[in-house]
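WARN retry 2 of 3 for item q-0093 after timeout on previous attempt; input resubmitted unchanged.
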Amino acid sequence: MAASEAEPTWLSALQEFWVVRLLLNFIAYGTVFIPAALIIRHLKNTKYNETAGPGCFPSVVRMCVFGSEQDKPSLEEAGRSIATSPVERTFWQNFLTLTFCFVGLQVSYLTWGVLQERIMKHAYGATEELPGEKFTNSQFLVFMNRILAFLLAVTTIMCTRQSRHTAPLYKYSYSSFSNIMSSWFQYEALKFVSFPTQVLAKASKIIPVMLMGKVVSKKSYQYYEYVTAAAISLGVSLFLLSRDPEGDKHSTTSTVTTTTGVFLMVGYMAFDSFTSNWQGELFTQYKMSSIQMMAGVNLFSCIFTGVSLLEQGGFFGAFVFMMKHPAFSIHVCILSLCSASGQLFIFYTISQFGPVTFTIMMTIRQGLAILLSCVIYHHAISLIGVAGIVVVFGSVFTRIYCNQRIKALKRAAAATQSNGTAKV
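OK item q-0093 returned
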């Protein structure tokens, strides 16, 4: 009897180690991945798409495994697309749209960042007599974020005109897996590093993105990109090595950057860089819309995390925590809403003003996130740390400027060449 009572305590103590939780997640994801991979392989080997007849089930299988062929637009659709060219907006219309995008992005992601730190680093139910308890199930937070984002994406697809979807659905599973893993590493890292450290590390993810771009997409980069990447590494190093002993002494919320925290942030950046590169390949090959990508990725994220939570009993523990701490329930709902709305603002901003404007907005957001976290949660940053922050964001803006300058020179050279050809 005593042994049976001690067993749950031993198991729960074992799951306190993040490595054990990671392995359990991998095992749970494998229960989805391995059977699905075997089924997909069998269907492709038997050429199911050629032998199966009509019907609902064969159509679903084709959509999941084989996709659909790209239809050529009819003359009517082609004429309609030409007729509906975008109307040029006035200065004030552009200004109001840009302001709407900027405010939407800042409110969504700054609120998301503050709540993320509140949930992962601070105890709920703490009083003068009781220390309270912290929520530790990062995977549940990922699931809540993804399911709301999926519902918003599907609603948007149903309410707006979209191009025909041609990609096999299973191809979203790769970027979905890397996406949920990057989010999991991000939440886990907050248990070991301060939020400003995490935000600054995110600004340096240009480096693994470049490395992954060489491996996945065989991309080549300019010299200035390597220089700015090195400068970002230097700035992050200055920030990580800087310590304000007086701030650590008097602040009860300050945390020490540990080797574990750095390792988790490296895991986050590695998975996140794969996500962006794989999604870029899908965009190039299948030409789906951003909202379709959002729906596809979040669909598989819900499947993976949902199955894992069911197998590990994570839903039960999370719901018990929500019942004990109503404030946590409110925080999770707002966190998920901000995450989902933030994704919509990302796609809308890029579609209206391009990736450069969006990158500048998000870089500003990172700086504001550090400032807001320091004000609300009393993080102390030394002068060396401030210098590191300046180096990082200065390098990011330099990179943006150089990118635009090179594109402008290329356009000017192409225009000159076309004018010379016309004269001949």
